[in-house]
Structure formats: structure tokens, C-alpha cells
Write a structure and sequence with these properties.
The chain has 851 residues and is α+β, with helices and mostly antiparallel strands. It folds into 6 domains: 144 residues, no CATH class; 114 residues, Beta-Lactamase (2-Layer Sandwich); 64 residues; 98 residues, Gyrase A, domain 2, CATH 3.30.1360; 135 residues, no CATH class; 112 residues, 3-Layer(aba) Sandwich (Rossmann fold), CATH 3.40.50. The protein contains 29 helices and 25 strands. The strands form 5 sheets. Strands 1, 2, 3, 4, 5 and 6 form a 6-stranded antiparallel sheet that branches. Strands 20-21-22-23-25-24 form a 6-stranded mixed sheet. Strands 8-7-11-10-9 form a 5-stranded antiparallel sheet. β18 and β19 form a beta hairpin. The chain starts with a helix and ends in an 8-residue tail after the last strand.
Length: 851
């Protein structure tokens, strides 16, 4: 082995050449004097290891070494006689094992070995045997690799490549013999071909036998389907040539695309050439079958020089009624030149003409066209898609591939794309199909239901974001969204100013909702929306998309999260967007993916749910400061209340706190949320007592009786005390301004309306002597005033009483302060009136100092 390693300085320059053409260049540029110490350590070690593995090799032997490191990387080393398709076969096998090559070295070296196979010389001069030395570094995508199995599969596929290489000349000879037989005279036109047509097909087979087709396997099939003369991958023990015989008239050579795992190509869609055979009497005796692929020269040869195809081109031009040197004729020839060869062979001139007309129309209308070729016998289907060049990108390609796979129920997808200076991009998608299902659905020709369905699906897939939004805006007036001032035109004007990242992230349907809101906002305005999620999150999981729209203002998570949490939602994701309108006004869209907080539930009886409207109203009022941020807001979700009903219960809860009620706001609100029937009963009793529309004595008695029944069913002592206290408060209420809708004369700083015509300050005239929770002494009448900014009470111990008003700074117990003052007032007023009165208020959110 030490003698072999001594060849390292000689191997390195030839190894690094990495191509056959550079191997013999050892006498120039100093390659033969490269010092290993000057090279990258990893490169030298890789070459040294390859040299050690190649040190001893018998003639014709295949050496394969596979090593997977603990880090997951796999190193594959191959030493073999040089032959075509070897690297392709190795890479195909690696991909079949879930490996992706990240580096490959493939020097073709001229070597000399002694009688024992020991490497003695690696000469730049081509005086020895050419060997392929392949080194691949790969990473796995499927977990641990079975090195032994991979090595076995590599040896097997290298053996297949050797079979193909050994039989290549024989297969080309068989192709030539088929060409001669095709051109030979027959006693009768049993194939349905004229002598001239047979001659053209004979020239086509000669074209295949030349440097235009790489045969991978061939076999002779008799009329009964038995195969002999099997060569290449069709050798006995290899791939079986199982395809139906060509029996349709005319019985000409047939070229099709089939699905077959050859093992030596990364593509599983090789080309099948079937050549019908006849005996001297003209009887059909079977066929010769060739499997392979086109060479680069075959793929790129001018179609007007390819036998059979050149006549089809002439016929297509004749169908169109134009000269081949005219602009229209040259346009058609250019399209045909870029048309897949197999598709041209499989299509008649009439079919090609129809497809060309469709393609030219696609250029004029900037639309998509798809042409289907379904081959149930070969378990393959091809969708040839043409679309405007500027529409083609990776996202569109993936969408088109998915649409084809879904429509054809395909698998094992492969594609090729061609994007050039031509106005149409070409995408060829090949999939494996189920033969029986394919036969049941028909051929997929132009105009068939399958073709129309796929055409519509693919056209939808390439529509741009702007087009989808414009179409949705056109139908938005049908109730999809509330149209802004200016209608659809105002929304359409916004599309051109939308940033690219917004279009990339925002679904068109959601964007229409955004545009409807943004177009109608004035500076300082806000809008909110709660929608069912568009990302597949289950509705019954309590998941929504919540959007906040601000014009001329911004918001932070610190601003928004407390409000959403008070409404019983947790935020799991956020996406902010900034949209600049044509008028220069910046509008901000904040979208949140929200879900119910732990312990929360949604009240939606009988499937009727007006939650989005109630929720958005509640959020808006809290955001504007017209409702407080606390757990009473949860009642909107849990009990189906609107924001004002929740605020009414909050006011009653605030009064109880002033009376020394021992339970915290969170505990009280949580208790009301858990006892939905009681909470809704409290609101119903309040409405039946004071609503100008619903108030009715009989109704009030019925609601009160049901409420007392529900309260009696409460088991927890704490909960019973809470709901009983609220019940007593509502019963002890004489009057309220809750339903007053005129704004009165009060100034806007405190008493402006709350946005829906109601006063933001609620007042309740109470009978404290009917409220067990009120501390002694209890006044005859009491008025409790509540708003998020101010709270106050007025205590009156008689129908006629006298007293003043106090500005208190005792937010938590200002009623206690006022109660003490009213007792002193009663003593002071004893000689004037027998009882006293006193009022007081506290500012919960005083204005910011201006001095």
C-alpha cells in the first residue's frame, strides 16, 4: 500500500483535472509538480483515500466503498472501467436512497496495473486503461443510511450500466436492421403505409441509430408477447419489457413516453420506441422494442431535418395556409422547434396545427394553454403547459404541478421548463398514472371535460394576486364586505400602492377586507374585524383572525394585548402591515391570530352567533377608552352580551366594591362568566325593568322568577353571594339613564356620546335599604354614577335633605368617605332639616396636567 501512496503526487494533478480532456496535460502548467502540502487538507485526504481504495483492482472489477459518518454525511467512492451513464446511474441510486449529493469528483484517469491488479502508474499519456474514479459526498433526507444495502445497489446498477455499454453496438445494429426492414418492399400494404411513408420511417430509424438516441435496452417481441434477443437493461433478470404490441393502423414505428424505473437514470420517464415487424409474406410477427433517451444533439436538431417530423411541419404550415418563410410561418416553425420531440412524434399534423393555434391565441390574450397526453399502457401522462413568460416563477410552477397531480391523481412527478426570449414559457409535467383510472376518464384531448377542468384549474393557479383582488372587489358589493365611501373604485385605487411583502403574505380575500376598511378611514379613525381563520385552524377550536385598522396612528403589542386578553383571547401570532394610500395617508393594519384563553367559552345558542359584531364593538369602545380593561369584557364572549350590558354589570360591581364587597373584580367577573344563565337573567331583568322597548310588569315578574330559580341552583357559597348581590342591586334600582340616547348639554370631555348615541356616563337611582350589602346607616335614596373616567355617589337620607358635593381622592372607598360626611351633615343640619345629604366623586382617569 505504501507503494500506491507514493503515487499521490502523480495522481493529484490528474485527479484535479476532473475531465477526460485535461488528463493528458501533465506536461504543461506544472501539474505534475503540484506539491500535496500546498493543497487543501480535505482535498488531499479525499484523493489519498480514493487512491488507497483503487490500489488493487482486477480487470473489469467494480470497486464501491460506502461510509456514513456519525454526523450523517455519506461518502461514496467508486472505481470502475470508464463507460457512459456511469455517473448518472450512481447519482440516481443515491437519490433512490434519499441522499442528496453536495459534492462530486469524477476524474477519468489513464492507469497502468501489474498482473496482480496493483496500481503502478497514473499517466497523463493515454497509454493505459481508462478508469472512472467517482467520489460523492451526500447528505441524507430520510434518516440513517444502510451502507451495505447502498453498496449492493450501487454494484447492481453499475452492472446494468456495463450491460448497456456492452450491448450498445448490438442495439444500434438492431435499429439499423429495423430501418432496412421498414424500407423493404412488401407483398401487400399490411401496415397501412405507402412505400414513400415506409421510406421516411426507415430514415427515422436510421436517425435513431445515429448519434441521436441512447438505447438502454432492446428486445424482440413475437406476436404472442414473448420476448427474446434481450439486450441492455432488458437482459434476462433485468427490467421486463412489458408493454402492449402496436396493433393500431397504420402500424408505423411508435415513439411514446412511459413510466419505468430503469435504475440507471434519474428520470423515470424514458422513451419507448416500438417498431412493428413483418415476415416476407407481409404477416405481422411482433415488434422490436427499444427503450432509451435522446442525446443532446437529437433534442436540439432542427425539426425540419428530422425524418417524419419534417413532413409534419410542412403539413402544419399547409393547414395554416401560410408560407413557411412568412412571419406567421416562421412563428409556427419556431414554436415547433421548441416543442418536445416525443410530443411531436405522438401528434398528428392536425393535432399539432390545433395546438399551435391555441398557443398563438395564448400569446395574443396572455393566457394559459395546456395540452394533455395520457398513455394508460405506459402508465404515464404528460401535461404540456404554455403561459406568459413573465408569469412563470417557482411559486407558479409548484402550483401548476400540484394542479396537474391532483387532476390526474398522479405520482412520481417530473418536470422540465423552457423560458427563453419567446413570449410563452413552456412547462412539461410528467406523472405516473393509474391505467384503469386513466382509461375511465378518457384521453384528455382539447375540448374534453378532463381537459376543460384542468385548463380552468391551471388558469386559476397562475392568476396574479392583483387579478384575484380585483375580481373579489368586483363581487364585494354582494355582501362580502361593507363597501367604503367611494365604493369599489376607492378600493381599486389602493392596489397599485400596496407593498410587495404585503401581497406575498396576505391572502386576496383578506386583502379585500383590509382595503374596504382602509379606504374608508379618516385620519384618527379606527376599524376592527373578527373573521374565521383562513389557514385551516378549526372553528370549534375557538380560533379567529382579528384585525385592527388605524389611520394616521400606530399601535404596539403593549397597547393591544391587554385589550384582547380582557376579552378572553390569547394572541398566538401577529402580522403588522403599513399601507400608504394615494392621498399620502399612512394606514396601519395589525392582524392577530387569536384563540380562546384557557377556561374561556363562546356563547352561541342554536347556531346563531353575532359574536364578530359584538366583539368588534367591544374592542372599539375599550380602545377609545369608553369601557375599562378588565375581565367584565369576557362576558361579551362567555355570556353573549354586548359591550354596554357588560359595562352595566361592571358599574354594579363597582358599586358593590364601594359598599365593602370583599370579592375582587376578577373573581366577580369570572363568577358571572361561569354562570351564564344567571348573568343573562340579570341583563334580562334590567331590560324588563327599564328598557323603553321591553319594560313590562308581567315580563319583569316572569324574568325575576326565572332568575331566582337560576340563582337558587348555584352551589358555591362565594358564587351565591355574588349573584345574589347583583340580583338585589338590580331589584333595588328605581331609575337609570342607561337607555337615554340624546347627548344632553354635558360637555364632550366627560359626557359626549359613546359612539352609538348613548351617554358614556351611567347613572342608577338605588334604594340602599333594600340592598343587604350596603353598610349602615343606609340612606333612603342613592344615585350611583359610573364611567371609565369618573365615578360618584349622592346619598340622601330623606325626601327632603340638604348637603354639598365633594371631590374625593379616595378611589377605592370614596363612598365610605361620603357616608361619613353625610352623617356629620345630618347633625349640622338638625335645626334646619331633620336629615342630611351628601355627594362626592372621584376621577379614575384625570386629564393630564397642563401647567
Amino acid at each position: 500500500m505504501s507503494d500506491v501512496i507514493s503515487l499521490l503526487p502523480q495522481v493529484i494533478p490528474n485527479y484535479l483535472a476532473a475531465s477526460v480532456g485535461a488528463v493528458g496535460d501533465t506536461g504543461h502548467h506544472g501539474r505534475d509538480t503540484i506539491d500535496p502540502d500546498t493543497l487543501d487538507t480535505d482535498a488531499v485526504e479525499r484523493i489519498r483515500r480514493h487512491l488507497e481504495i483503487a490500489g488493487v483492482r482486477a480487470p473489469g472489477q467494480s470497486i464501491v466503498d460506502v461510509t456514513t459518518a456519525s454526523s450523517g454525511g455519506t461518502e461514496v467512492v467508486v472505481v470502475n472501467d470508464d463507460m457512459p451513464l456511469l455517473v448518472e446511474a450512481v447519482l440516481a441510486t443515491l437519490e433512490g436512497h434519499g441522499l442528496s449529493a453536495v459534492r462530486i469528483d469524477h476524474p477519468i484517469l489513464s492507469v497502468t496495473r501489474d498482473a496482480g491488479g496493483v496500481l503502478t502508474d497514473v499517466s497523463g499519456v493515454r497509454s493505459g486503461t481508462l478508469e472512472s474514479w467517482i467520489s460523492v459526498s451526500a447528505l441524507t433526507t430520510h434518516g440513517r443510511i444502510d451502507d451495505a444495502r447502498l453498496r449492493t445497489d450501487l454494484l447492481d446498477v453499475i452492472g446494468r450500466v456495463a450491460d448497456v455499454d456492452e450491448d450498445a453496438a448490438s442495439m444500434r445494429t438492431a435499429l439499423g436492421a429495423c430501418a432496412s426492414a421498414c424500407a423493404a418492399d412488401r407483398p401487400a400494404d399490411v401496415a397501412g403505409l405507402t412505400a414513400d411513408e415506409r421510406g421516411e420511417y426507415a430514415r427515422l430509424l436510421e436517425w435513431f441509430a445515429g448519434n441521436h438516441f441512447v438505447p438502454l435496452g432492446s428486445a424482440r417481441i413475437d406476436a404472442s408477447g414473448h420476448a427474446d434477443a434481450r439486450l441492455g437493461i432488458y437482459r434476462p433478470g433485468g427490467v421486463e419489457p412489458e408493454f402492449p404490441l402496436v396493433t393500431e393502423m397504420p402500424m408505423a414505428p411508435r415513439i411514446t413516453r412511459v413510466h419505468l424505473e430503469t435504475g440507471i437514470q434519474r428520470s423515470d420517464f424514458p422513451i419507448l420506441l416500438q417498431v412493428p415487424t413483418f415476415d416476407t409474406a407481409g404477416t405481422h410477427t411482433g415488434e422490436y422494442r427499444f427503450l432509451g433517451t435522446f442525446t443532446p444533439s437529437g433534442l436540439h436538431q432542427t425539426v425540419q431535418d428530422v425524418p417524419v417530423l419534417r413532413r409534419k411541419v410542412d403539413e402544419v404550415i399547409a393547414y395554416a395556409g401560410v408560407d413557411d418563410d412568412s412571419f406567421a410561418g416562421q412563428s409556427m416553425i419556431e414554436l415547433l422547434q421548441n416543442y418536445p420531440l416525443v410530443e411531436m412524434f405522438e401528434s398528428s399534423a392536425a393535432q399539432l396545427h390545433r395546438r399551435l393555434e391555441e398557443m398563438l391565441d395564448a400569446v395574443a390574450t396572455r393566457s394559459l394553454r395546456v395540452f394533455l397526453r395520457i398513455n394508460p399502457d405506459g402508465e404515464a401522462a404528460t401535461a404540456l403547459i404554455y403561459l406568459p413568460r413573465d408569469r412563470y416563477n417557482t411559486v407558479v410552477r409548484l402550483a401548476l404541478q400540484n394542479a396537474v397531480t391532483d387532476a390526474l391523481h398522479g405520482s412520481a412527478l417530473e418536470y422540465s421548463a423552457r423560458v427563453s426570449e419567446m413570449p410563452l414559457a413552456q412547462l412539461q409535467v410528467m406523472v405516473r398514472i393509474d391505467p384503469e383510472l386513466a382509461r375511465s376518464r378518457g384521453p384528455g384531448d382539447i375540448g374534453t371535460p378532463l381537459h376543460r377542468q384542468l385548463q380552468a384549474s391551471l388558469s386559476e393557479a397562475i392568476r396574479s394576486w392583483d387579478e384575484r383582488v380585483r375580481e373579489l372587489i368586483g363581487t364585494a358589493g354582494d355582501g362580502m364586505v361593507t363597501m367604503p365611501r367611494g365604493g369599489a373604485d376607492a378600493m381599486l385605487r389602493l392596489i397599485g400602492s400596496l407593498p410587495t411583502d404585503y401581497k406575498d403574505q396576505r391572502d386576496p380575500a383578506a386583502a379585500v377586507g383590509d382595503l374596504a376598511q382602509v379606504a374608508g378611514l379618516r385620519p384618527g379613525d379606527l376599524a376592527v374585524a373578527l373573521r374565521q381563520p383562513g389557514d385551516g385552524r378549526a372553528e370549534d377550536a375557538g380560533a379567529w383572525d382579528f384585525a385592527l385598522y388605524l389611520c394616521g396612528e400606530t399601535a404596539t403589542l403593549t397597547d393591544v394585548l391587554p385589550v384582547l386578553h380582557s376579552l378572553g383571547l390569547d394572541v398566538i401570532d401577529e402580522h403588522p402591515y403599513t399601507l400608504v394610500r394615494p392621498d399620502g395617508q399612512s394606514c396601519h393594519v395589525y392582524e392577530f391570530a387569536v384563540t380562546l384563553a384557557a377556561g374561556m367559552s363562546v356563547y352561541a345558542p342554536d347556531g346563531h352567533d353575532d359574536l364578530p359584531q359584538r366583539f368588534t364593538q367591544a374592542f372599539s369602545q375599550v380602545w377609545r377608552g369608553r369601557a375599562e380593561v378588565d375581565r367584565y369584557n369576557e362576558l361579551v364572549m362567555r355570556c353573549g352580551l354586548d359591550w354596554r350590558s357588560a359595562a352595566m354589570l361592571r358599574a354594579y360591581g363597582g358599586y358593590l366594591r364601594q359598599c365593602g364587597f370583599p370579592y375582587s373584580t376578577d373573581h366577580v367577573a369570572s363568577t358571572l362568566g361561569r354562570h351564564v344563565d344567571v348573568t343573562r337573567g340579570l341583563v334580562a331583568l334590567f331590560d324588563a325593568s327599564f328598557s323603553p322597548v321591553l319594560a313590562d310588569v308581567a315580563r319583569r315578574e316572569w324574568v325575576l322568577a326565572r332568575l331566582r330559580t337560576d340563582v337558587g341552583a348555584v352551589i358555591s357559597l362565594d358564587a351565591d353571594r355574588i349573584v345574589s348581590a347583583f340580583t338585589a342591586l338590580v331589584i333595588a334600582t328605581d331609575r337609570t339613564n342607561f337607555f337615554v340616547t340624546d347627548s344632553g348639554d354635558a360637555g364632550p370631555a366627560i359626557c359626549g356620546d359613546d359612539g352609538d348615541g348613548h351617554r358614556p356616563v351611567m347613572s342608577f337611582k338605588l334604594r340602599p335599604r333594600d340592598i343587604p350589602q350596603a353598610p349602615e346607616p343606609r340612606p333612603l335614596h342613592e344615585i350611583y354614577v359610573y364611567s371609565p373616567r369618573v365615578q360618584g355617589v349622592h346619598l340622601r337620607f330623606g325626601d327632603v335633605a340638604r348637603g354639598g358635593l365633594r371631590w374625593s381622592d379616595r378611589r377605592e372607598d370614596f363612598r365610605t368617605e361620603i357616608l361619613g360626611l353625610v352623617k356629620a351633615q345630618a347633625v349640622k343640619n338638625a335645626v334646619i332639616v331633620p336629615v342630611g345629604a351628601k355627594g362626592g366623586f372621584v376621577l379614575t382617569h384625570p386629564p393630564a396636567p397642563t401647567g
